[in-house]
Amino acid sequence: MTLTRLVGALPVALLVVGNIATSIALSVLQSLDCTHDFDRMSCDFDAPICSGYNLTLRSLSFDDESSCIFKQCDRGKCCCSTQMSLIYGETHNATVWKGALNLVSKTISVADSFKPRVPTNVTVVESNVNVEVTWSTNMDDKPSVRDDLRAIVTYREKGSTPQVSEPFKPITVNGLRYYEINGVHLEPNTTYLVSVRSVYWNNVPSDSSEEVEFTTRSWCVEL
Asked: What is the pLDDT of residues 46-70, one digit of tens each?
């Protein structure tokens, strides 16, 4: 009787294990996201534990393969990145492994997955009644890409809703990108935080720069 029960329970146990594996693979596939800056490919997916997961990236055009090991990069998210040669127009196959088990594969387009680097050196200067914001795109090693980048400038009073610009093509002043916040949109004697993102034609924005703090003067009250 006991042996019969064990034999009968085995298919059920295998079915449960199979369902769990399928559920994990589906979750990874749905949340897997890969982006690059033409120097490194970075991928992440949602999972509470990252141990045992790794990634292989294989070019579908050339004999080129890279790999990396996923690590916890945020609460509930696993990330890894690898340096590799990326050519516009190429596609890559991204495969997530759990040990020796191939969980999911996904085709990554180099053109569609480009994500600009985080802008740096954000500075703020008051000029007359307006506020001048300058920054570096951090893409000077890729001038053809750098020159096509648009920008999104976000500023907010501490504790209030951010004011976000539409993507725009900034002008260049002394080698830095430039944007002017009109003083009519600012309150006098008030502290604000401003940050910048870059965005390319594929509409994938960079992560936000660090927020820079500035305080308006009383001249704004006369606007």
From this structure: 988 999 999 999 999 888 899 999 9
Torsion over CA of 25, 50, 210 and 67, rounded to 10 degrees? -80
CB atoms within 10 A of CB 66: 17
Q: Residue 4: what pLDDT?
A: 56
- Phi, psi dihedral angles at 207 (to 5 degrees): -65, 160
* Residue 57 contacts residue 94 (beta carbons within 8 Å): yes
Query: Would you say 203 and 161 are in contact if contact means Cβ atoms under 8 Å apart?
Result: no
Q: Give CA–CA dist 216/222, Å, rounded.
A: 12
Q: Which two tokens stand for residue 215?
A: 């305080």
Token pair for 187:
């309150």
Terminal Cα-to-Cα distance of the chain (whole angstroms): 90
Q: Environment class of residue 147 by beta-carbon count within 10 Å: exposed (0-12), middle (13-18) or buried (19+)?
A: exposed
Which residues is 177 bridged to in the sheet? Answer: 135, 172
Q: What are phi and psi of 7, to 5 degrees?
A: -65, -40
d(CA 56, CA 95): 5
Q: Which residue has the tokens 């703090």?
A: 213
DSSP state of 1: -
